[in-house]
Amino acid sequence: MEVAKEMLRRQDGTELQEGGRGMRQMRFAMFLLGVWVVAVYAEQHVVWDGDITYGLSTGRSLQQFTAPLNWKDGMLHRRLEVKSKPTDFSTGIQLCVWSGGETCSSCDPAFTETGVYYTASNPGGWWKKAGDLSGWNSHGDRAYVIKRSSCDSWLSTQVASYCIGPSAAPHLPISVHVTEIYNSPGEDFDCPSDWTDAPWPECGGTSALGRAAHNDLGEAIQVNRLSGDRILVNVPHATTIALYTTGGQRLAVANAGKNGVQLNNASRAPSVVLLRAATDEGVVATKLLLAR
User: Fold this and answer.
1) Residue 238: how many CB atoms within 10 A of its CB?
2) pTM above the 0.70 mark?
3) In sequence order, what are the residues at sequence separation of 6 or more whose Cβ sits closer than 8 angstroms to the Cβ of residue 245?
4) Mean pLDDT value of segment 79-104
5) DSSP string covering 3-66, please?
6) What span, in angstroms and rounded, lies between the C-alpha atoms of 267 and 229?
7) CA proximity to 45, closest of 192, 202, 204
């Protein structure tokens, strides 16, 4: 306990305040370093954080998860970075448990190119096959299965009923990095500070699709879907509104007036964008979640 307290002190001798940003970052750093020593903070675990390369006949990757999990009631948040991919074949990665039964997640989100993708799920709602599913609550192997996005066949050149077969060869190998975070039932998700483009309010975004949402702009942000794959964003009393990717690429800009700014080809846009609005009091900004 004294070791933990020392780690939570700043270099100038002051202590980090409970619930503050510094505390959240320190907690995340502590369990990455393997010094998670205070039992009250044991509700969130990084259960897998590593690279996987799917070769021609790999099909799945078995990974040893590092924490006992209540799979029926907890939540898993995943960051998937697709690092290399030879074609635009629509692909998904499924997490499966085979122990005393069989259960698997969906293959969402589908991806056709390199980039970062996020998903969250409650395994209690996964597809299940008959069995007692005792493996949900124990240490053990979990399988990351690579499939075509329809989730019906492994993306593998193996000749088997559950594999695409030799025709999968042009679409492999695929290299990814998977980070999987588990939260116990009823515990809040503490979003890692580097998950800047994650589509969850805990990661600092404002969910406003199809309704008004208030945030640091001090105004009601209006975000609505239009016909023709467009999204309309408006902030009352703003003179100019601009939308950017989290990496700084400008997507759209307009003099706001009554009409706001339109984002075309919205289905291709990131799930999180940066909104900057010029007002009489200066330029203000927030992250905006466009994910459904």
Assistant:
1) 24
2) no
3) 197, 251, 270, 273, 274
4) 88
5) HHHHHTB-TTSPBPPTTSHHHHHHHHHHHHTT----GGGTTEEEEEEEEEEE-TT--EEEEEE-
6) 7
7) 192
Q: In what order do the strands lie in the sheet with 60-65?
A: 60-65, 140-148, 91-98, 102-104, 127-129
Q: How far apart are CA 207 and CA 199, in angstroms?
A: 9
Structure tokens at 177: 């990095």
DSSP 109: S
Q: Quote the CA–CA distance of 275 and 140 in Å, as a whole number.
A: 43
* Domains with residue ranges and CATH for the chain: 1-42 (no CATH), 43-190 (2.60.120), 205-289 (2.60.40)
The burial class, CB within 10 Å (0-12 / 13-18 / 19+), for 23 is middle
168's CB contacts (< 8 A; 6+ apart) are: 56, 155, 156, 157
Decide the pairing of beta strands 261-263 and 250-255: unpaired
- Unique residue bearing structure tokens 């780690």: 7
Cα–Cα distance measured from residue 160 to residue 163, given in angstroms and rounded to the nearest whole number = 5
* More confident: 174 or 282: 174
d(C-alpha 102, C-alpha 175), whole Å:
26
